[in-house]
Each structure stands twice: as C-alpha cells, then as structure tokens.
Design goal:
The complex is a heterodimer of chains A (146) and B (398). With 146 residues, chain A is mainly β. In chain A, the strands form 2 sheets. In chain A, strands 6-7-8-10-9 form a 5-stranded mixed barrel. In chain A, strands 2, 3, 4 and 5 form a 4-stranded antiparallel beta sheet that branches. Chain A is globular. The mean pLDDT of chain A is 94. Chain B is an alpha/beta fold. Chain B has 14 helices and 11 strands. Chain B has a 9-stranded mixed beta sheet with strand order 3-2-4-7-1-8-11-10-9, with helices on both faces. Chain B has a two-stranded antiparallel sheet with strand order 5-6. In chain B, α4 packs across α14 and α7 packs across α11. The longest helix of chain B has 17 residues. The termini of chain B are close together. The chains are: A mainly beta (146), B alpha/beta (398). The interface between A and B is large, with 49 and 48 residues.
Chain lengths: 146, 398
C-alpha cells in the first residue's frame, strides 16, 4: 500500500488545494498555464517577470472524448487498461481551455459540451510507497450557482 | 493563374504508401527517380536538394536532404533539411521555391520519405518532463486521436454533425482512392462498416482515424525561365506556398499542448490558426476559394476533413456537413476534396505527406489522375498542419 502522495509532475498543480499552478505576466497580465517564467508570450509584451497564481477550479466543458485503447509510454497504464475520459475545460476568468482526464467513474455518457466541471486531484499511478497525483475534471451536473 | 512568385513543377513522383518495412531512404530515392524521369531532368543537373526530415529513423532522417543526395550520388548540389512535423514537405518546398525565386538556383528536387512504427505515434523516448509532447502522454494519456476527437465532438455539439456524417467522409475518400496506385488502402467501405469498427476516441472509430504508413514523394521544381528555356509547355505551377504560425492568442487547443493561450489580454482577431493557413495562401496567390477546382486536405480523422472545408473557405462556419451531404466534395461534385483518397486511403507518412498532396494536385491539373480525375481541373489547393504550430498550404494551377 502506498503511504505517500505527491504530484506526478512538479509545478503543474498543487494537489493539496487542489488547483492548477500558473503564472501572470507582471506587465500585461496575460495568464499562462503551464507556468511561463522566462519570457512573456504575448508578442506585444517583452516582460520577463511573472507572479505565481492558482487558476480557477471550475469551468465549462469545451469538448471531450475518451481513450478506449491503452496509450503508449510514457503513460503508465492500469493492467488491464481501463478506458478513461478526457475533457477540455474553458476557464472563463483566465480565458484558457485546459485539458485533463475526467475523474474516475465518469465516462463520455456523463459529459456534454457546455456542462460545468470542477478540478479534483486523483491518483494517476502508484509505486510501492507513493501515489502520484494529477488534476482531473469532474462533471458538475447541477448548475454551480443553482 | 501563374504570378511573379510562381515556380514550375516539371515532375512529380511517389513510392506507394504501405507498411513495407524497408529503409525510408529507399522510398525517397524511388520517388525522386520517378519525379526526375517525369521531369526529363537528370539528377546531375539538379542544383538544390530540399529534404523533408523524419525523426523516427535515426540521424539519416534528421539530415534527410544530404541522405537522399548521397543515395542518389554526391554531385555537389546545395542542400537543406527541414523538419516541421506534418508540414515538413511544405517547408522543404518553401525552401526550394525561395532559392529559385531569389535567383540562386534554377532547378531543385524536393524529397520526403518515412518508415513508421505500428500503432499510436508516441513521443521521443527518455524522461523529459519539460517537453509538452512527452508530458501529454504521461499526465493525460492524450494521444493524437484525443485531439482529433475533441474537434469532432465539438462539431457535433455546435453544428449538429452526426456519426453518419463522419462515416460518410471515410466512405467518400475510400471511393476516391479505389484506383489510386499509390494508395495503401484500396477497398470500398460502407457507412455501416465504419460505424461497426471499434471506438478509439469517442466519437471517432478505428476506420475514421488515419493510420501511419511508409511512403515517399518527390517534386522537381524550377524557375519559369528555366522551364521556358528547356521547352516545357503548359506546365503546372506552384503559385503560393505558406508555412504560417498561429497568431497570439491561439484559442483552439492544439496538439500537443495542455491548454490554449489566454484570450483575456489580447483579443483574438482574424481567423483561427487552421483557417489562417489557406487564407494566407489565397492572399499570396491573389485568388480565392471560389477559384479552386479541388483540394487535398489533411484528414487525420474523418471529422477533421469537415473542419478543413470551412478553414479553406469552401463553405461558411457550420456548413461543412451540408456541403458533404450535397455531394459537392465527392468526385463529380463542385469541388472534390481529397480525390487521391486522402489520408483515409494512404495513412500518414509524415515528411512525405505535404509533397504527396502536391503530386496529386499536379496529376489532377495535368489530367493524369486516372480513375479519380476531377474534370477540367485548373486550380488545386493543399492544406495541412504540423505539430506545435507549423502551417502548410500550397496552391497550384495550370
């Protein structure tokens, strides 16, 4: 049994909140995910300094699909492969669409373009003592403000 | 429609697509020999070799121009090697054309070839956590079909596309490629057979996603003066080549990215990236989509062909399904799309594919596309898109 948890990759999300980690340009305020820390990618801006931010944790499903076949490495598959859904979710405040797997237990039949989704942290894969976590999108069937 | 930026296409050639399991150099050389024969130009007279690179065949693939030049026999020609993912062939052609238009060389050979592994394309090996192409497989299990499927599902939600529409694209392209000697898959399929094939990335099924193939394609191109001086009459011309990048903010999720650019600080102005590719070509050629007789577009999935109808200006946004259903894009229709059979019949041989599109358009414009001829074809356009933001579009006429 795994006893520790950690993010599957550094700098992309904080599983404790959970939230995606991005940056905001100190000059033009453009938001970047994954974090941009070197040079602003707005072609009209030459800034090289950024504030670290967390992104909105709810958004609207832009589109979705699933993986019926096992993806190749470096994906770490379950054995046997368990199909999973993937969603592209639009964050209104940031004006960004972010990809993520869909939370376990939800398939394409549970999803629709325009549906609300919220960010959760789930295990991507495990080794002997650690669960490696990743962000996933969980559909919210009721309107968030309902 | 030739203009002052046109170059002449003297010859084209392809090695048939398939899973031949040979060295990619063999396919490239075979295609080059056919193109040279077709042109009536001897290899020793080629002044510039533009290779389109493959990244799955070791170092010879990274410097494909020199690899092909050595295989054909060193002649001291000028050489370049280009990698731009699926757009590599157009990048190589753009190099050759620029050299010719600058007056640095008169006649050039453009070659691309690939030997591909089976199954999903996977990223380059190693533990590379700063490479989005590696990370999208590791963190998301997002394959190339994942992205095609996101576009397909969105078409269904926004424009009412149906499973049958997507299947119909495959049925049409299978019919087009039936008699194409260079096509890998030459078999008619029905809508029911497409819909009965296994789901890969909902809503896309196995028969709607392009395979990976071995193949090679080549062109001999030259200046208009060279063509005239050597007595070529009524040649096909390349009137425009564009290799545009996206414009910030790129608001459509693109392979292999995790996210779009933010649209909050700079408003998206003008067309999306995919639409900008052909727009730039029309602008360069000084004509519009209404002048086009046929198009070869990158049908990585059946559904993606519908996106291209709109992106290359054959119809307005949300009208692609109706254009397909009307038969306009089928051989015999107003503007046949993928008369070669497209990727549906070829599968993808990455560095050869953009050149192969030009080979097909050349045969169509010459009236040599036996069994799939677009009658009276005068102008053809190609469009494709390479990973990480390489646009690719070529306009040819006769």
């Amino acid at each position: 049994m795994a006893t520790k948890t950690q993010a599957a990759v550094d700098g992309f999300f904080d599983p404790a909140i959970p939230a995606l980690l991005g940056t905001k340009c100190t000059q033009c305020a453009t938001v970047f995910f994954p974090a941009e820390e070197t040079s602003c990618r707005n072609p009209y801006c030459t800034a090289t300094t950024f504030d670290h931010i967390t992104l909105s944790t709810t958004g609207t499903i832009w589109s979705y699909t699933d993986a019926q076949y096992q993806p190749p490495p470096p994906f770490v598959p379950a054995d046997p492969h368990v199909p999973f859904a993937i969603a592209a979710v639009e964050l209104a405040e940031e004006g960004i669409v972010v990809l993520g797997q869909v939370a376990a237990g939800f398939g394409v039949a549970d999803l629709a373009v325009g549906m609300q989704a919220e960010l959760v942290a789930e295990t991507l894969y495990s080794d002997d003592d650690t669960d490696y976590l990743v962000w996933k999108w969980r559909p919210v069937k009721e309107p968030a403000n309902g | 429609m030739a203009n002052d930026k046109s170059v002449a296409v003297l010859g084209v050639g392809m090695h048939p697509w398939g899973k031949w399991g040979k060295n990619f150099v063999e396919y490239g050389v075979a295609a080059a020999r056919i193109a040279l024969d077709d042109a009536g130009v001897e290899w020793k007279d080629i002044q510039y070799v533009a290779g389109a690179d493959t990244i799955r065949n070791g170092y010879p693939g990274f410097i494909a121009g020199a690899t092909f030049a050595q295989a054909l026999g060193w002649t001291g020609a000028q050489v370049s090697s280009s990698y731009a993912a699926c757009a590599s062939g157009a990048a190589a052609l753009a190099n050759a054309r620029a050299q010719i238009l600058a007056g640095l060389v008169d006649v050039a050979l453009v070659v691309g070839a690939d030997t591909t592994p089976k199954g999903f394309f996977a990223p380059v090996g190693g533990d590379r956590k700063d490479d989005p192409d590696w990370l999208r497989f590791h963190l998301l299990g997002a394959t190339n079909p994942t992205y095609f499927a996101l576009y397909a599902r969105r078409r269904m939600a926004l424009y009412g596309a149906t499973d049958e529409d997507f299947a119909q694209v495959k049925v049409k392209n299978a019919l087009h490629g039936l008699n194409n000697p260079n096509a890998r898959y030459r078999k008619e399929v029905t809508i029911d057979e497409v819909l009965a094939s296994p789901m890969v990335a909902d809503p896309l099924r196995l028969l709607e996603i392009c395979a990976t193939s071995d193949g090679g394609a080549a062109m001999v191109v030259c200046s208009m003066d060279y063509a005239k001086a050597h007595g070529y009459d009524k040649v096909v011309t390349v009137d425009a080549v564009t290799t545009v990048t996206p414009t910030f903010p790129n608001t459509v999720i693109e392979m292999p990215n995790f996210s779009t650019d933010s649209s909050k600080t700079v408003a998206q102005a003008g067309p999306t990236f995919r639409a900008s590719i052909a727009h730039a070509t029309y602008e360069q050629a000084g004509i519009g989509p209404e002048d086009v007789s046929l198009a070869e577009v990158y049908d990585l999935s059946s559904a993606l062909e519908l996106d291209w109808y709109e992106d290359i200006g054959l119809c307005g946004e949300g009208e692609a399904e109706n254009l397909l259903r009307s038969g306009a894009t089928t051989l015999g229709g107003r503007v046949p799309v993928n008369p070669s059979g497209g990727l549906a019949c070829f599968g993808e041989a990455i560095p050869a594919q953009a050149i192969a599109q030009c080979c097909e358009v050349t045969w169509q414009l010459r009236g040599q596309a036996t069994g799939r001829q677009v009658e009276g074809a005068k102008v053809g356009v190609t469009a494709n898109q390479g990973l990480f933001g390489h646009g690719s579009s070529v306009l040819l006429s006769r």
